[in-house]
Amino acid sequence: MSWDFETEPEFQEKLDWLSNFVREEVEPLEHVLKDASPTNPLRNKLIKPLQEEVKKQKLWACHLGANLGGQGYGQVKLGLMNEILGRARWAPTVFGCQAPDTGNAEILAHYGTPAQKEKYLQPLLNGDILSCFSMTEPQGGADPKVFQTKAVLEGDEWVINGHKWFSSNAKNASFLIVMVVTEPDAPPYQQQSMILVPKETPGVNILRNVGVGYQAEGEGSHAYIHYDNVRVPKENLLGERGQAFAVAQTRLGGGRIHHAMRTIGQAQKAFDMMCERALSRETQGELLAKKQMVQEKIADSWTDIQCFRLLVLQSAWKIDKYQDYLKVRKDIAAVKAMMPRVFHDVAARALQVHGSLGVSNEMPFAHQVIESFHMALADGPTEVHKITVARQVLREYNGTNGMFPTQHIPAKREEAIKRFADVIEADLAVNA
Ligand SMILES: Cc1cc2nc3c(=O)[nH]c(=O)nc-3n(C[C@H](O)[C@H](O)[C@H](O)COP(=O)(O)OP(=O)(O)OC[C@H]3O[C@@H](n4cnc5c(N)ncnc54)[C@H](O)[C@@H]3O)c2cc1C
After folding, report:
1. Whole-number mean pLDDT of the chain?
2. Do 230 and 285 belong to one domain?
3. CA dihedral angle for residue 261, residue 266, residue 269, residue 275, rounded to 10 degrees
4. What is the distance, to the nearest Å, from the Cα of residue 291 to the centroid of all Cα atoms in its chain?
5. Number of folded domains that form the chain
6. Tell me: the pLDDT tens digits for 307-326?
7. pLDDT at 186
8. pLDDT (0 to 100) of residue 232
9. Phi and psi at residue 199, to the nearest 5°
10. Distance CA 373, CA 390 (A)
């Protein structure tokens, strides 16, 4: 019997330290620090000492295995840590595990040549530079087969031309990992490759940085990029030619579940605020907490968070057990599909319980609701993940050739009567 929902006492001590550090030292930063650029002096003055403290505590870059300078804790422990980090906007940066750098580090570690690792991976792991994953195009993101940005090999250089859209963090990145068509005549899933592009390469033109709903125009960090005759050495290919889909999958498996772990923390924060308000605000002579429809919001939110958390931790446990993302594809897709709904619903209920204050820009709920849509799109839309879940689940079933389902009651009854005929007849005789 090995079911166990308890945390080892030694690791719980680390979680307690982490929880206190995030609340006391990291959460306040979001009210004074906006610009994530590693060249921003204010960012460095505020963030670097905290990063040093995290390194001293041996909690830096915990998503990485020990061979890459992480602690090799595995995904369950990472899940318990990430749900604390999710509470604070700057916590992933302070702990060296912010997206998209984590996923980019993962593919560099997996597919990078020794030279690529030295030039890009090491400074990324040290937290000295930031990176960008440039895949989505304006004409379609959910179906990567329609991407058109292409790279042609001319002598010893790749020449890249095309448009990319929603390339998060490009403005602060030192390099971009760009998905490009290199094999136009190959079957659809073997046409594209990944190429490393230093951001300062001539021809990398950021047209504008798009923001999301709560940001003013010009404030965003999701770049619309034109790649105009961008030339990089042929050694900048990451992985094999035509292997971009496999490389992207390596990155997304971990990335999706890490987002989910942090989302537990964000949903819990909205939930905490909802409970505090319900116990503080009175209407018609009694606390909101006494109103049944407010109680329903609290009960539904608590249940949603618990179910989601268990699914995330169980999936993390399966990743640790199998060490193979393909074996956990269904679980990760289910987590990814559930994440935006839980976050949206809890944040929206918390917003509602706060009334006009809740919808105002003096509380974080509108921000959280928009972020729930971010979760529903980035790394692929919810619908696509539900399709994956359904396809994987259906592989475990067979149809029937019969006219009626195998569980059709008349047939089942007839079968049972035949099977137990002797007993039934004997019973009838006794009771006649
Ligand atoms: C905040 C944010 C950050 C992002 N960061 C990055 C990044 O760093 N790098 C990057 O490359 N991309 C990034 N993306 C882009 C993201 O990956 C795409 O938005 C996503 O893949 C969907 O592509 P699309 O927006 O073009 O939507 P479309 O492909 O146009 O799809 C639109 C809608 O159609 C529906 N739909 C799509 N496919 C199906 C289907 N098979 N069945 C049923 N319904 C379907 C869904 O409702 C979907 O939302 C980011 C997106 C957001 C919102």
Report:
1. 94
2. no
3. -100
4. 35
5. 4
6. 999 999 999 999 999 988 88
7. 97
8. 98
9. -60, -30
10. 22
Domain match, 140 and 221 both:
yes
What is the rounded distance in angstroms from the CA atom of residue 108 to the CA atom of residue 92? 19
Q: Which of 377, 385, 388 to mutate to test the pocket of ligand 1 (most atoms within 8 A of CB)?
A: 377
3-class SS of residue 192: strand
Pocket test for ligand 1, best of 101, 107, 166, 341 (most atoms within 8 A of CB): 166
Name the residue with tokens 């570690």: 109
- Asked whether 305 and 267 are in contact (CB, 8 A), the reply is yes
- CATH number assigned to the domain comprising residue 15: 1.10.540.10
Given a contact cutoff of 8 angstroms between Cβ atoms, the answer to whether 44 and 87 are in contact is no
User: Cα of 141 to ligand 1 centre, how many Å?
Assistant: 5
Residues 287, 294: contact at Cβ < 8 Å?
Answer: no
Look at ligand 1, atom 3, and give the residue with the nearest C-alpha. 378
Q: What percent of the chain has pLDDT over 90?
A: 86
pLDDT of 127 > 90? The answer is: no
CA distance 67 to 109: 10
Tell me the two tokens of residue 319. Answer: 């990743």
- 79 and 332 in contact (C-beta within 8 Å)? no
Q: Which pair of structure tokens corresponds to residue 411?
A: 């047939």
Q: How far apart are CA 279 and CA 273, in angstroms?
A: 10
Listed as own residue / partner, the contacts of 12-19 with beta carbons closer than 8 Å and 24 or more positions apart are: 14/57, 14/59, 14/81, 15/80, 15/81, 15/84, 17/57, 18/59, 18/81, 18/84, 18/85, 19/84
CATH code, 294: 1.20.140.10
Q: How far apart are the first and last CA of the chain?
A: 49
Which residue matches tokens 């900048």? 236
pLDDT digits (tens, 9 = 90+) for 327-359: 999 999 999 999 999 999 999 999 999 999 999
Q: Say whether both 316 and 408 belong to one domain.
A: no
Give 41 Cα–ligand 1 centroid separation in angstroms: 34
CA distance 54 to 390: 41
pLDDT value at 70 more than 80: no
pLDDT at 67 over 80: no
